[in-house]
Design brief:
This protein is mostly beta strands. Helices cover about 10% and strands about 40% of the residues. It contains four helices and 31 strands. The strands form eight sheets. Strands 12-13-14-15-19 form a five-stranded mixed beta sheet, with no helix packed on it. Strand 23 (about 330-335) and strand 24 (about 340-350) form a beta hairpin. Helix 1 (about 30-45) runs antiparallel to helix 3. The chain is globular and about 50 Å long. It starts with 18 loop residues before the first strand and ends in a 14-residue tail after the last helix.
């Protein structure tokens, strides 16, 4: 790489005034102990009106508690949450970024997705017509590719194992790159306009475009297009997120809609579709095997937002819950239940919602914002109390990604900086990841481009 292309890096700011915020402790749950404690609170309140439960034998205690709760669920929600989620404790979230990277030509476009942090601890970032890779282990940066026509790159997304990178182009083409060999694997065609978003589920790559279509590609076979997702969006698709538990795809678009897609409905029991989701260390292209192409209509269409929806995130804490964030005229974060197709609740954040990420270790969701504060907010879940607000970007925070260890988030803005924020206590995260044999380092070298 030409040294003349390396820009000076902004110095790390000393973190002298950390904000102390309250967080809920992640404690192991002993169901029997907590249920008995809960039962005592219920029985004490119930006996104020009736003493009939005093006559029950101890062996019927649990049955009585369940019956009471079923009849008075709303009444005891606060008791249950306090009992099962534990007590709040103090925790540090620094209000200054840990470090800052200079990122010239990071585009100011709400509908693009120009940042992704892969499972091999490699950060991909699109700067104008080029894709750069920054290795968080050693701080090395190199240019992966530049578009042939010098048009801006529109999206990037790492395959689950982190070795393959999908790159969406302005001309509707999607490229697959092997980042270990620094070589292009293949091209994926199908769209007639720019590819604004990408998301992986095993060997299945979903691409969303300004042509309003979503296409599912089986990257192992020559005839890669296996699904065309139709009748959902009528404007640019700018967000895609897979729920790996249910294999449900969520999409957001400039038509203000959120759609859920169930690809199982397009396959019968004889079709071998589930091996698509078994992502291994590498994949192969089988030139002799073809999948059966099919069209899929959405399982649900949610039209509750009043602006474009770019922010989508599936909850790791509550199955089937999708968080979505609306644009400039919307300001809201909404929570949908994929199992029944209902809107659970919504909050007004006061500013454009650009991205959403769930915390891996705390019951929290992190949002990045545009007009007018250009901030990052950390919210408790499910109460959605704001427990931290991080400032520093001069323009809207359009891009957000989390490190594979869940300790750090990186934010990108058209102020042409990438900022790294500590969200979880590093020592605790390292301890958890050591137990899971996942060790990541975070180099002090801050060169990009």
């Amino acid at each position: 790489m030409n040294n003349a292309l390396i820009d000076s890096i902004l110095p790390r700011k000393k973190n002298e005034n950390n904000c102390r915020v309250k967080r809920k402790a992640s404690l192991p749950i002993n169901n029997n102990h907590r249920l008995l404690n809960f039962s005592k609170q219920i029985l004490e309140e119930e006996t104020k009106e009736s003493n009939k439960f005093h006559r029950k034998s101890s062996q019927n205690l649990i049955t009585d508690v369940i019956e009471i709760y079923q009849n008075n669920a709303d009444k005891y929600n606060d008791i249950i949450e306090a009992e099962f989620f534990g007590n709040e404790n103090h925790h540090h979230i620094p209000n200054e970024p840990e470090r800052i990277l200079d990122a010239p030509q990071l585009i100011d476009d709400y509908y693009l997705n120009l940042l992704d942090w892969g499972n091999q601890n490699i950060l991909s970032v699109c700067l104008g017509p080029s894709v750069y890779l920054w290795n968080a282990n050693n701080g090395q940066t190199h240019l992966l590719t530049t578009s042939n026509n010098n048009e801006n790159i529109c999206s990037v997304s790492f395959m689950n194992n982190g070795s393959c990178l999908g790159i969406g182009h302005n001309n509707g083409l999607t490229e697959l790159w092997d980042i270990e060999k620094n070589s292009k694997i293949r091209n994926l065609k199908g769209h007639s306009n720019r590819v604004s978003c990408l998301n992986w589920n095993g060997y299945l790559l979903s691409t969303g475009s300004k042509d309003s279509l979503i296409i599912n590609h089986d990257v192992r076979v020559k005839e890669h297009m296996i699904h065309k997702l139709i009748n959902g969006h009528n404007k640019e698709v700018c967000a895609l997120k897979w729920d790996n538990e249910f294999n449900i795809l969520a999409s957001g678009g400039n038509d203000n809609n959120v759609c859920l897609w169930d690809i199982k409905k397009a396959h019968n029991s004889n079709n071998k579709i589930w091996d698509l989701f078994e992502s291994k260390s590498s994949f192969y292209i089988n030139k002799n095997q073809n999948n059966c192409f099919s069209n899929i209509s959405p399982l649900y269409i949610f039209n509750n937002h009043c602006a474009a929806v770019k922010a989508l995130a599936w909850s790791p804490w509550q199955r089937g819950i999708l968080a979505s964030g609306g644009g400039k005229k919307d300001h809201s974060i909404k929570f949908f239940n994929a199992e029944n197709g209902q809107l659970n609740y919504s909050i007004d954040t006061g500013s454009q919602v650009c991205q959403l990420i769930w915390n891996k270790y705390e019951k929290e969701i992190i949002s990045s914002h545009g007009y007018s504060k250009n901030q990052i907010a950390v919210w408790s879940y499910p109460k959605m109390n704001k427990i931290a607000e991080l400032h520093g970007h001069m323009n809207r925070v359009l891009y957000l990604s989390m490190s594979p260890d869940g300790c750090t988030i990186v934010s990108g803005s058209s102020d042409e900086t990438l900022r790294f924020w500590n969200i979880n206590d590093r020592n605790k995260v390292l301890e958890v990841n050591r137990k899971n044999n996942q060790i990541f380092s975070f180099g002090n070298f801050m060169n990009i481009r």
